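Continuing from the previous page...

OK, I double-checked the sequence for Protoporphyrinogen oxidase against my notes and this is the correct one:
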Amino acid sequence: MTGMMFSSTIAHCLPQSAMSLSYSRNNRIPIPISSFSFRRRRGNSQNNATNTIICCSTVSTSNSAVNYQNTNTATVGIDGAEVLDCVIVGGGISGLGIAQALSTKYSSRSPNFIVTEAKDRVGGNITTVEADGYIWEEGPNSFQPSDAVLTMAVDSGLKDELVFGDPNAPRFVLWNGKLRPVPSKPTDLPFFDLMSFPGKIRAALGALGLRPSPPAHEESVEDFVRRNLGDEVFERLIEPFCSGVYAGDPSKLSMKAAFGKVWILEQKGGSIIGGTLKTIQERKNTPKPPRDPRLPNPKGQTVGSFRKGLTMLPTAISERLGSKVKLSWTLSSIVKLPNGEYNLTYETPDGLVSVRTRSVVMTVPSHIASSLLHPLSDVAAESLAKFYYPPVAAVSLSYPNEAIRSECLVDGKLQGFGQLHPRSQGVETLGSIYSSSLFPGRAPPGRTLILSYIGGSTNPSILHKASNLSETTVSYGSNPEL
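Thanks. Re-ran it with the corrected sequence; updated structure tokens here:
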């Protein structure tokens, strides 16, 4: 579930008086409404399963790497079965999505499986908080409304709870002290002021194929974009996008992994434009499969959520799965049995529980999966241990509407989707999402809610900052013109 990650202040829409530290009762000072929330963003990965343990974004174990071990814990049956078809480890959206797919696709066979979650709630990093008239997210903020995600929502009974952002809401990039809109359609390209005229010409020629040939080795995002589209596109558009969406370093992110749909265009057509034209022709020649008529049809490039926040989705799936979801079950070991089955031992509120299953799906963070898989496969465990999770702090702030300059408000709401901050602009925060403008019901009347992110691969020191310091960074640490 990928959110559109921006982060931090409201740029030139805030008065100068809101930008200085003050302990007075000034109603222009933003109110931190969120408990300080750290999360680590997942890096790029591959899914290459070869046996019956499937680890989300990793390789699986091999038969030769496993030795049978006895356990003193009695095996218990689940729903009358001594051996399950599958155990899904992790009750985040990945694990729950797999569980729902099993229930839907194999409903006639009634697959026997469980989802186990170490926490006392489902959802994983999806953390929605509702308090004092606010609804805010401390993890992912939204999702791309693909048919797969919409199907999951509709199958969970949440069709009427879906909300979508305004596709026409402007997105901004902070450059030279000014918020500059990002073009939303091709006809905007000649007129937007984020790039210079020479920069636009360089991008156009590169997209047509007048650029250096691709190297033999795999390129990073930075290498690919600078070669194909020029320095300005990278520095003013792609670099802040990578920081906001991946919290990553574009000089290290794989272009093929992070932006595969763009990367393949050059491979397919010799240039970005050539590949685009070829893709359009292929689509014309390939009939579209019929779309599920139950699905809503969001307009334009937008993002989605639910009326009461993202947590509605994992909660709804969990409620439908019922007793198949086991909370506060902490997996302590996995053992491969001689007959090819697996024995999983859990610490639960009722004591140690041992479960036998024919297959296992791991949807937990890579460092947890690594420790659990070490007895089964050193190769898998060592590969998982190398995954890097950039630290990111999510901070939500509430401003009174009178603290926002009137020209930035439309019908009492901050105009726009959000803003991104290129690292070269000297603003510590990655950017901001205008939460109360993006989705309805996120703030009380007369208040504006801003969700900000700090940290990422280029600023890992945020992990060691106290929450009050980070809130101060978001509120006051921006460009003086903001």
